[in-house]
Amino acid sequence: MTRSLIAVLLLALAAPVCDTRAQNADASKGYAPGLNEIMIMTQIRHAKLWLAGDVGNWDLADYEIDELKEGLEDVVKYFPSYKDIPVGQMIEATIMAPIGEVESAIKARDRAQFIAAYDKLTAACNTCHQSANRPFIVIQRPTASEFPNQSFAPKRP
User: Fold this and answer.
1) Quick one: 59 exposed, middle or buried, by C-beta within 10 A (0-12, 13-18, 19+)?
2) 154 secondary structure, DSSP code
């Protein structure tokens, strides 16, 4: 396991999620994830989406974009507003259209279209972070796989 993946996992475990959950969940309804928990998973899905699409594993890319979209839908559901920032509206306005473009590229199995759409999605993530007063969170294309235990190559028949 690489140092950066270990660091991400340690940050996820050490992050103060209890306050966030307490603000957004009724104890009688059970567990609700913290915003940072959802966003860490979003970052992982974003990376895996690139790793799959970059090598043309369209089935895995389709799975990852769907999971990424579901995670962001959870943000909209659990955190329509966070610290007086309309996170739900920001995601709807900024992120969902680029996700649709990535989905179209995956369905077309078009690597060039995928790269352009992925880069738009990444830029939209960064725009959202800046608008949410989190400009220090900058997302980019992965430069290497942080998942040495997973093959991203498409399975050949």
Assistant:
1) exposed
2) P
Rg (alpha carbons) of the chain, rounded to whole number? 16
Here the tokens at position 88 are 């739900």
Residues 6+ apart with CB under 8 A from 81: 87, 88
pTM tops 0.90: no
Looking at residue 156, the DSSP 8-state letter turns out to be P
54-90 pLDDT tens trace? 999 999 999 999 999 999 999 998 888 888 999 989 9
**d(C-alpha 118, C-alpha 145), whole Å:** 16
Cα separation, 102 vs 97, in Å, equals 9
Phi, psi torsion values for 82, nearest 5 degrees? -135, 120
